[in-house]
Specification:
Layout: H1 7-18, H2 50-76, H3 79-91, H4 96-133, H5 141-166, H6 169-179, H7 186-227
Helix pairs in contact: 1-2, 1-4, 2-4, 3-4, 4-5, 5-7, 6-7
């Protein structure tokens, strides 16, 4: 068993700033440059507003830092077990003493990570949404408003998906218990089917919501065309 470490923080922070949404480029409903904001520090029309992207990156990093600070007390409480595992594994990482100490450290750290990982992923998603909502250089005010509305709509859809999935927590826990020993057992298969049945309305709800967002974006863009 590989012991959990705090190294994944750096990886997620790098991912937060390198995520597709945090790089410049057209957003999901961009229609190219219009008659709006020009003259952005030598940027070409059609590029994302660089200042807006930088603000999103700063906010994403701050969000991740806050999440780490909130998890710090939980993680700090495991320091003694982590150090004990390091000491036990220093001489022989395959020894029984190493495995026992490593398992104890993981048991302590796992609840901390279960709370922290979703918080960090939310920071990454929020940062990507922030950039997608940034206007394009030369984009009309109307198109920029459509873009921001579409990003907000899709973000709401994902939040509703998360809430829906949370309602299947009992089914997920039951599947984990049933499948721990044997993933091919009848109990595991049955628990998996129950979980899938619980999650299916969440999936269909997301697809419906995203289709609604897409239709609204198209309608909004058409209205912008009509007003020009």
């Amino acid at each position: 068993m590989k012991m959990l470490t705090r190294g994944f923080f750096a990886a997620l922070l790098i991912a937060a700033c390198a995520a597709p949404g945090l790089a410049s480029g057209p957003g999901p409903i961009g229609r190219g440059p219009g008659s709006g904001n020009g003259g952005h520090g030598g940027q070409r029309p059609g590029q994302k507003d660089r200042a807006c992207i930088m603000e999103c990156r700063v906010e994403t990093t701050a969000c991740a830092s806050d999440a780490r600070a909130a998890a710090a007390p939980c993680l700090d409480a495991c320091d003694a077990l982590v150090e004990a595992a390091r000491s036990a594994c220093a001489a022989d990482h395959r020894s029984a003493a190493c495995e026992t100490a490593r398992a104890a450290a993981n048991r302590c750290l796992s609840p901390c990570y279960e709370e922290l990982k979703p918080a960090l992923r939310a920071c990454v998603t929020g940062g990507s949404d922030c950039v997608r909502a940034c206007p394009l250089v030369g984009e009309s005010t109307c198109d920029a408003a459509c873009r921001a509305a579409n990003v907000a709509c899709r973000s709401t859809a994902r939040s509703e998906l998360t809430e829906c999935r949370a309602g299947c927590a009992d089914e997920l826990a039951a599947k984990r218990r049933a499948c721990t020993a044997d993933r091919t057992s009848a109990a595991c298969v049955a628990a998996g089917a129950a979980l899938s049945a619980c999650l299916e309305p969440c999936r269909t709800g997301l697809l419906t919501a995203l289709e609604t967002c897409k239709a609204s974006a198209i309608e909004c863009a058409a209205a912008c065309d009509a007003s020009e």
